What we know:
Helix content: 10-25%
Structural class: alpha/beta
Largest sheet: 5 strands, mixed
Low-confidence stretches: 1-7
Mean pLDDT: 87
Shape: globular
Order of helices and strands: EEEEEHEEEHEEHEHEHEHEHEH
Number of helices: 8
Number of strands: 15
Amino acid sequence: xxxxxxxxxxxxxxxxxxxxxxxxxxxxxxxxxxxxxxxxxxxxxxxxxxxxxxxxxxxxxxxxxxxxxxxxxxxxxxxxxxxxxxxxxxxxxxxxxxxxxxxxxxxxxxxxxxxxxxxxxxxxxxxxxxxxxxxxxxxxxxxxxxxxxxxxxxxxxxxxxxxxxxxxxxxxxxxxxxxxxxxxxxxxxxxxxxxxxxxxxxxxxxxxxxxxxxxxxxxxxxxxxxxxxxxxxxxxxxxxxxxxxxxxxxxxxxxxxxxxxxxxxxxxxxxxxxxxxxxxxxxxxxxxxxxxxxxxxxxxxxxxxxxxxxxxxxxxxxxxxx
Length: 322
């Protein structure tokens, strides 16, 4: 299977999931990954050892068809499971955060189209048991399927891919002491804690967070109502929105579309901060009116852009010429 085109329209709150499985003797575990992250599914490839990657789940690397050398991760081993040899295993080749990685699995079932409303957030026990690798749970054809946080896995295998932030943000005259309120939505607790700590340590942001787009949208609607009741600008209550794309209940593209379709809220800059921001998928954010799009882990560039958008809106700096 080769993934070459994404058919889903942005803002429909739908996703497509590749369902795969890991065989552990008498037990078969079912898992899923967003189709948007999958380049292709191929047969097992000969690998070469990678001494610099000391994590036991990294089996080595293999040459990809585009000439790049791709690391291969034994997903069962990463999850602490014992994969049994059966039929020929498969490699799911993914691309996100501008990184290509191969994940070894026992087999692949099919692609499912579903609504984010069908995706349940994992409980604390499941998150702990999976080392925070599960971001959602969905029931498909009678099976419980765990949606995996592939970027968290890759980030643990290579700390250089973790969210980074230098802490130095540009200032403009008259805004040196200003602190801006940013609403941030992301289903990853690790990402939320990192973003909140790093942005607030910069001294330029106050960050209010939500674990999914639905809760974030409910909070935004309440702020809109409050602004109307008090007859004040919405920007007195919130200055900008930063959102992940993949989230249970309501995805970031739909959240952005909801904001930009509203005559009062559309003044708020919306920045998408997601592993799905790639050249082949950036048009989706454009189609729902996103003001900025940055791939994780580049929090520095995202923060600088959000400040710029706020300053342009407030008339403190001129809008750059196209």
